[in-house]
Structure formats: structure tokens, C-alpha cells
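Continuing the batch. This is chain 6 of the set; chains 1 through 5 are on the previous pages. Same settings as before, nothing changed between runs. Recording input and output for traceability.
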Amino acid sequence: MDPKKITELQALVDLYRQDPTLLRAKQLSFLRDSIESMGDTILCSVKHASTEKTFNEQGKQPEAAESEESDLEIEYDGVIEPDVDDPQEMGDEYLEITNEMIDQANRKMEHAFAALDEGELQKAIDLFTDAIRLNPQFTLLYVNRASVFVKLQKPNAAIRDCDRACELNPNSAQSYKWRGQAHMLLGHWEEAAQDFTMACQLEYDEDTNDMLKNAQPRAEKIVNHRQKHERKRELKALHEALERVKLALEEQERTQKEESTWQWMIRIWWKYFDFFTTILDPRIIIAWVDVTWNPDNIYKYRSDRKFMKFIGQYD
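Output for chain 6:
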């Protein structure tokens, strides 16, 4: 199939994931009909309802989430699907171990190595498990079983064994080495690089160092990629915060202007209201006519504050 067509199809799927209402477009009716004919009749409507709910709750259309993986170019050769088996038996950590049990566990381990030599990996797993039941405090049993799980391409099981081995002996270089290989199978390049680094620090060997050289560049690329997007998110958050501050200041300024306008209007209204109520007072009119005809008569009204304020003698 044409890789370009696959890329275009993937882009369409990504758009649909970001906005399920996309299929409501008339131009994509053929695609919607095809999906519904295969039994998916409710997915679009359910997601649309969820989108509408978010819109109603937040008061705005949700923004499409930025895909941080879209611009990350990294090789995933050798990466497999994770194993989903039930966790393997780890033994009883509180078991009281006798010398006889230790001897039996060692014999089981020898038989397990013999099974490995014959290529019987599952038999080796079973024998290591039997040995772990007898001596659950022996770090090497978990490390060896983890190595077989890696060969069986069961990285999650191997990681569980290596985790247990590291708990029993944090200085076991082999525990970190095999856990690093398990992480590589899962594409966990950062974890793999950390484990290989620790293994080399505890017990350097060329094989582990080569695996570190393989995982380290990819891990650094992921770290740099994450830091770049973290910076973008921080800048976006800062920009949004500044926008909120700007809007708050504009709102404050607008409110202050409105308050100032209303205060001025009230002051003017009250001034003229007071003026008109004053001139409507017959006593004020009589006094004003008397003083107008004979200004010397103003002395008669010195005690009338309302009149004196009216003619400007008092504030």
C-alpha cells in the first residue's frame, strides 16, 4: 500500500480523534456510512455529546490537544508488544529457609541451566520458579529467570523479576542489565539507558556498554523532545496568564471609567436638582427680588443659609 496514502489516512484518523463531529460533515458522509455499516453507530454521537457537554460547562469550544508525538522521529526497531500474562510466582519472602532447601534450589537451578542449553526455555522458567519457591531470597534466581523471559520476549515479566532482584541486592549489575534489555523491547529508551548506565557503573562490560550506546541517543532525543514541549506549555501558560491579567486590567479600567462617569452625572444631576428645588421655594424668590431691587437689603437674609448659598455667599 502507498505509504503516502497511509499517512493521509492516519492524519484523518487523528483529526477524528480530536473532533468526533468531523464525520458530520456532508463531504465525509461516505466515511460515516461505512463506519455505521460496520456496527459503529453510536461512537460519533456519544463523543459529540461529550464535546457538547464540555462546551456547555466551559462556555467555549474545546481546543484540540496537541500531539507531542507528531514531531518526534525515533527508530523503534526491535520493539514488541508488551506481554500481558499474569504476574509470575515470586515465592514467599517470609519463608524460613533451611540448608536442605538451599541445596534443592541449587539443583533446580542447575537443571534449569541444562534446559537452557537444550533450548527448552519454558522448562527452564518452570525450574527457576521451583528454585525460587525453595529459596526466594536468592537474587541470582530472579536474574536468570528474567534473562529467559527476555529470550521469550516477555519483557514485563522480566522487569518484575529484575525489580525483585534489585530489592534483594541493589548492587547486582546483571539485574539492571537484563531490565534494561526488557525496557528496550518495550521501547522504554529512557529507562533502558538508566539501567545500562547503572549496570556499567557497578560492573562494566562491553556488551552492556554497546546496548547503552544504542539506547542513549534515543533516550536523549525523547528527553529533548519532552523539554521542548514543556517549554511550549510553560510559554503558553504564561501567555494565557498575561492575557488574563490584561483582561482584568482592562475590565478594571472600564469599571473605573464607568464609575467616574456615573459619579460625574450624579454630581451634576444633584447640583441642578438642588438649584431647581431652591428656586421653587417662594421665600427664596421673594428674598431674591427684594435684594435685586435693593442690594442693601441683603443684611436681612444673612441668617438664611439656603438663600445665601443660592446667591453664592456659601458653598
